[in-house]
Amino acid sequence: MASQRLRTQRRAVSMASAASLDLGRLVQEAEALASVLVTRPTGETLLTRDGRRVLEALNLGPPTARMIVACVSSHHNMTGDGAKTFIILLSKLLRGLQAILDKREGSPFCEAIQRSKRDQKHCHSLKQISQSLMTFQTHILDHIMAQDLRKHFLSAFSSWEGEISRDTMESILEAYFCGRIGNSHQKLLSQLSCDFYYRCIPFKNGKNEMLDLVNEYFVELHSAVTGLPVSNSRILEGLVLHRDFAVYCPADGDIRMLILTESIDSALAPPGLEFVVNAEVQYQASQVWITKRTEAMMKHLQNNNIKVLLSSVKQQEIVIYYAKISGISIVECLSSEEISLLCRTTGISPFIPTQDNIRSEISETMIAKFCRPLVLGSKRYVHLGLTRTCAFEPHCVIFCGPVHGITEQHASAFHGAFKMLQQLFKAVDLSDGCEAQPENTNNTSKTVNDQQLKTSMAETEKQFIDSSSWVDENPSSLIDRGSSVREICNDAMTAIENTSTSVVSKQLDAAQEYWKPGNPIVPFKFEKSYKHTVQSYTNLVIQAGSVLPVGGNFEILLHYYLHSYAKQCQQPKITVISTVIADALLSIPKILYRTTKENSFTQVCFKATSALQTNQQLPMHQQGLESVYCKYQLVASVLHCLTKLLTIDLIIGIKRPPQKTEVNDSEEDL
């Protein structure tokens, strides 16, 4: 018995191997994933594929590579975009950190471990880097965004009430679809998504609730039709249920409907009890009772003017029979998600047929303007014209395409666009629990000069503890220390809020000049309401609706201000981390301008730096707008993923048989 146990242990050891984390291997894995996403077989840059779907289709072996893909998927599911940029930025950060560790001499991450054992040096350095990254993300990033980048942000809203013009919406959506869809269909999908947004939103203050509902039930709110041109894609009023009528009885006018989650025909015994039949006569009598009970229930529904039953279960033949006699249509076998969408849209609960309510008035009904069959391709569906009872005007979208792969790609991009819009209308606070305050326009407000702001910066930096003392400290304690730093940051932002209105006026004038009619794109109309389009000074790091022109402007801005901060920072480790992140950010505009003839990356970067040094607006090289929140969240997600990777102590590899390829897998899945 003991010998058998020993042989089992030996087999387990032979099938598993352990190794410490190798930063060089992480670099190779991240760069390999990036090359899959951004390079064609010919070596040309590829920026039109769905990065998340490509990554998830890969059969990856290394656990760290699978962890990277999981982080990418998590970020994409939240923001609807950024899979390719995520991998590119992560690979450049890993390459920059490897260069720092390879340098050794003069590196702040190697000095504190000279006396450690040789096999522990590398792991010790990675732990220090992960802790410095956590410090940067917790304390530095928001501070740079609030003090430096925020003054460059523009607002997508055309008024204080949160209204967004159609021109601005189309500019944002066109920029989004540019990296997700081929050139021939970008305009069509951006207009389709813009139409869907404005048709579904019943009032200007209901956009957040509407976007939440659309993103949660998008599968139920769209249908795909193959064999037709993409140009046939359209938006339909009401909802399309992905089932056919079990019974169809045409009806005019307002149609009262019920939602059912159980069969109409009554059971012979309550749940949990048995009904015992001892003779044929008893069985026949029980069937007669069920028939009469079902007939009475259907008659009761007819008397209450019920015209349609929407059921999540399959109804019995006796129910179908009496429904035809009573002129009641039945749609059965609806999914739980469709039932949930109907309940949320109409605000009613499912009807429960019992002995008690067979003669009482039915109140849980919804009204439809129409309920009719709908043929899409070779399939028959149910088309409901529901009336709105919440912050969502019921509409659905039909995607057409020659093959399934095209419609699936367009539906995925369309859904991602609404996830992006959901993030666009979010705000980021400088400190937890701090609410946005209205702009201070009092003429007696105190002015704050540059020296006062620098003093506030210096006081904030003093709060950072020497990074060498964080090496053996629990990372959770670093978050607790953030409260004091955030309070000082709040003081700095309060000082900015009290700035005289002359500073704000200069920003308004600059923005008006920047978006003058002669420019290629004018997303905002600077007429009587132009003063609402520039970010006001509040306690928010990122206000809801914050946008920037596309073309790498966010990355260039953050690169510039991170380098400026690194030059003034007195903490060596934070200085190195800030520099590595700043340099990695430029990898994004490098790819964007790699193939452009008019504006090379060097020219774009030089013009942008010159503009920032002279306090001018950044030059615009591409049309379109993008969400600042999504860009900010991308950087935060990449840093979080990098921190997770660097905190791995040991990788245990277990041999396993190769995974079987599913029959449904094909190249079209990419």
TrEMBL record:
One of its GO terms (biological process) is chaperone-mediated protein complex assembly. GO terms for molecular function: ATP binding. It holds the Pfam family Cpn60_TCP1. InterPro entries: BBS10 (IPR042619), Cpn60/GroEL/TCP-1 (IPR002423), GroEL-like_apical_dom_sf (IPR027409), GROEL-like_equatorial_sf (IPR027413), TCP-1-like_intermed_sf (IPR027410). This is Bardet-Biedl syndrome 10. It comes from Chelonoidis abingdonii (Abingdon island giant tortoise).
